[in-house]
Amino acid sequence: MTRRRIMFAGGGTGGHLFPAFALAEEFVKRLGEQCEIRFFVTGRDLEMRLIGERGYPAHRIHIRGIRRGSVMGNLLFPIMLCCGIMESIYHILRVDPDFVVGTGGYLSFPAVLAARITNRPAFIQEQNSYAGIATRKLARFADRIFIAYEDTARQLQFVEKCILTGNPIRAHFGQVEREAACRQFGLDPDKRTLLIFGGSQGAASINRKILKSLENLAAIERLQLIWQVGGDIDCIEKFNKSSLRGVTLKFIDDMPAAYAAADLVICRAGALTLSELTASAKPAILIPYPYATEDHQTKNAQTLVDAGAATMIRDAQLPEIDLPQVIEKLLTDENKLLSMSMASGALGRRDAAENIVQRILEFMGWQ
Questions:
Q1: What span, in angstroms and rounded, lies between the C-alpha atoms of 59 and 5?
Q2: pTM score of the predicted model
Q3: 42: Cβ–Cβ under 8 A, 6 or more apart, which residues?
Q4: For the segment 293-303, what is each residue's pLDDT rounded down to a tens digit?
Q5: Are 146 and 79 found together in one domain?
Q6: Are 130 and 36 in the same domain?
Q7: 215 and 327 housed in the same domain
Q8: How far is residue 238 from each of residues 19, 194, 229, 234, 322, measured CA to CA in Å?
Q9: CATH value at residue 19
């Protein structure tokens, strides 16, 4: 039986890792025991925990991203990049993968480039409407580029390589029963659940607003929360002292269940988040991260707003806006929530991982 070795490289955050996990699961599903999955890693705690929990072998690359606005902080970047490329070449020659898949972020750059240097196929999966710098620089070296938005192809100047697939997400999104999900988080299925998160690291401005709103949120009838706070321990302590029902977590491991339990979601507007949100058919209050490259999160969010699936609040508006009032108005309007949910579900794409894997298998001649 021929062994198929596949190496993934993402930027070390949940936004780049979870698409890789979705693709890895689909490769294993298609190829069975002959499939061996490995990951390039930077060594960050979250990254190592998520990959370790799934049992994938990991190979560390010493690389970091460019620090925007810091000339001194970037002086050593060219040296680090060269070292990262050499380390990637070493691991590729030692492991001998059939191909490398980059799912965005700075870690993709040395890994994909090393694949081409060692004469192996390389593929890129870009989640955002505005392609990251790694994807833009690597486009000429990739054999195929899988994109989630049509506009991305025009930015890359290699339209013939781009394939519109959507973002790969884990198969369980939109498949979990609400009552089972509520039990998993210790919630009452008869109450209305508000899910709040700001990405794998949390979001400071959203956390601050929720903290200041705890008393008014507690006054909303039958409300309970699932609140991912990141590393903000103060949020956990103050929530536990409040009269609000629900749960606060540093990190939510089972996002499909969290979405399933939710009646309404407050979150950023990263591409992967919106893919998971629409696959789960959930209405949302979107608060785009204001410092995203080319303000691409606002553009992402506007797509859902135009479709009637979400409402948007600018991050700069948070201190002044009456967020509990916005939440209560939505939660008490069942027709509005249903309409938003249906619009969200109409945008959802659950087959991206299957399509990407199928395309790669065909390219490799394995189908």
A1: 14
A2: 0.84
A3: 12, 60, 61, 62, 63, 64, 107
A4: 778 899 889 98
A5: yes
A6: yes
A7: yes
A8: 34, 17, 12, 6, 20
A9: 3.40.50.2000
Range of the domain at 151: 4-171+350-364
Q: Residue 182 has which token pair?
A: 């509520």
Q: What is the arithmetic mean of pLDDT over 2-6?
A: 92
Q: Examine the domain organization and report whether 228 and 255 are in the same domain.
A: yes
Domain co-membership, 199 together with 92: no
Q: How far apart are CA 261 and CA 257, in angstroms?
A: 6
Residues 316, 355, single domain; the answer is no
**Secondary structure element (H or E) that encloses residue 97, with its range:** none
Distance CA 285, CA 108 (A): 31
Residue 144 near residue 161 (C-beta atoms within 8 A): yes
Number of domains in the chain: 2
Specify the pairing of strand 223-228 against strand 35-41. Answer: unpaired
Tens digit of pLDDT for each residue in 163-185?
999 999 988 899 999 999 999 99
What's the start-to-end Cα distance of the chain, in Å? 15
Residues 193 and 166 in one domain: no
Q: E strands within 183-335? A: 192-196, 223-228, 245-249, 264-267, 284-286, 310-312
Tens of pLDDT along 245-290?
999 999 898 999 999 999 999 999 998 899 999 999 999 999 999 9
DSSP, collapsed to helix, strand or coil, labels residue 69 as: coil
Which residue carries 């999160």 as its tokens?
297
Structure tokens at 139: 């486009």
d(CA 343, CA 337): 10
Alpha carbon distance 46, 52 (integer Å): 10
114 shares its domain with 25? yes
* H or E, element range at 23: helix 14-31
Residue pLDDT, tens place only, 50-102: 899 999 999 999 887 666 656 665 777 788 889 999 999 999 999 999 999 99
Whether 126 contacts 135, CB under 8 Å? yes
